[in-house]
Amino acid sequence: LCPDCASAGPRSRFHFPRKMTDTRRVHAVRGELIHFTADPADAGDAALTHLPDGVMLIVDGLISESGPAEAMLAKLPADTRITDYRGKLILPGFVDTHIHYAQTDIIASYGEQLLAWLEKYTFPTEARFSDPEHAGEVADFFCDELLRNGTTTALAFATVHPASVDALFEAAWQRSMRMIAGKVLMDRNCPDYLADTADTGYTDSKALIEKWHGCDRLLYAVTPRFAPTSTREQMALAGRLFAEHPGVYLQSHVAENRGEVAWVAELYPEARSYLDVYERYGQLGERSVYAHCIWLDETDRERMASTGSAMSFCPTSNLFLGSGLFDLDRAHALGVRVGIGTDVGGGTSFSMLQTLNEAYKVLQLNGQRLSAERAFYLATLGGARSLYLDDRIGNFAPGKEADFVVIDPAATPLFARRMAATTSLSERLFVLMMLGDDRCVAATHILGECAFEAGTT
Fold first, then answer.
1. The whole model's pTM is what?
2. For residue 36, what are the contacts with CB-CB under 8 A and spacing of at least 6?
């Protein structure tokens, strides 16, 4: 058991690293270390670093160094605290580049495509987040569910209510998670009970940026839901917020559904394309992240590449809502940054492993291939790069924040049996992404400290 969790009596699966009081924390973790230093699509086998029996030294939440266990153990001080995960795989914490925390309670809701989904499920559910108590309860559950699935960084939508943002950031802060989030901007084509105005959206967002952006590991994202639910005035002010506050993010949706694309063309007839609407209002650039990006043309993809904007590939929701198939090969050929998004609640799982499973199938249907190595790159370092956080998270390079997930290769009888028949690391990783889910997550560490451990009460 994780030494951070050891205590007399019942123990919780979830632990708040923030409550650690040591002035200097030195900690070593031993196990099978796997991480990426480049995209396997570019660098091949050289992109992956694999230590079958490795030790990673963590000082004050940051990775100091890692190497083969024999060499590392020989030079560690005798009193170094060591968490022994031999027999398990240790990977960087997963990075979810698109998820709606307020839609947690409508995951697996039956029978609609995008626009009907919003009307039937999303808007009524999000109305409840005017209640800070409800927002706080969902935020706590949401953050715990991310940790239970090995996700340590997320780019998340809140709702139009400022209290929903406060609740999510507070929950993430308590757990020392790296969270990027923002208040939804929405002043038309939505129920009156969820509408803000261009001015109130701007004012509320500005206040939230000043309150939360850069607080510990928290970062703010300007969040127009999507072009149809914002007037031109609100879109202009969203672009202004993005420009006025260097370092903030901007997140939205683009070209998810063909009906949505046609609607945008009616609402913004002056724009060349759906993506062009965002560009006209200053919303493309570094740290802007657009979910889905299915029904884009070549010019759109080139503009995303040239501006440094990122795509979030959301396979489970694209299949569940019948939206379409993402073109990863074309995005890569043009140099667009791409991460993976679970897109809960249109997405059907918090598990990045299950999301990679569906990504493989989406690309198969689109005549493309997704190797296991490339999939795990996208879920870790690729996600970090799409968020411009690869200097802080995404792999086990010295100086990075020590967020990681511990995977049990014998978590279920079938998983153990199939793993026993594998002959290579590539095959093991593929089995993990096809058969794995939250049951495979033995532990999740935030800044080196255990934040979730399976098998405890």
1. 0.94
2. 47, 48, 49, 373, 376, 377, 380, 381, 394, 395
Tell me the torsion sign for CA atoms 216, 217, 218, 219. Answer: positive
- Cα 44 to Cα 38, 286, 315, distances in angstroms: 9, 27, 24
Tokens of 395: 């792999």
Q: Tokens at residue 250, please?
A: 């901007």
36 touches 91 (CB < 8 A): no
Is pLDDT above 50 for 170? yes
Give me the torsion for CA of 198, 202, 203, 204, rounded to 10°: 100
Considering only 283-287, 320-324, 327-331, 427-431, which range has the smallest mean pLDDT? 320-324
* pLDDT tens, position by position, 26-66: 999 999 999 999 999 999 999 999 999 999 999 999 999 99
When computed from its CA atoms, the radius of gyration of the chain, rounded to whole angstroms, is: 21
Q: Which of 103, 138, 140, 142 is nearest to 124 (CA)?
A: 103
- For 429-457, give one letter per residue: b (16+ CB within 10 A) or e: bbbbbbbbbbebbbbbbbbbbbbbbbeee
Strands 151-157 and 178-182: parallel
Six token digits for residue 141: 């559950």
The structure tokens listed for 105 are 């309670």
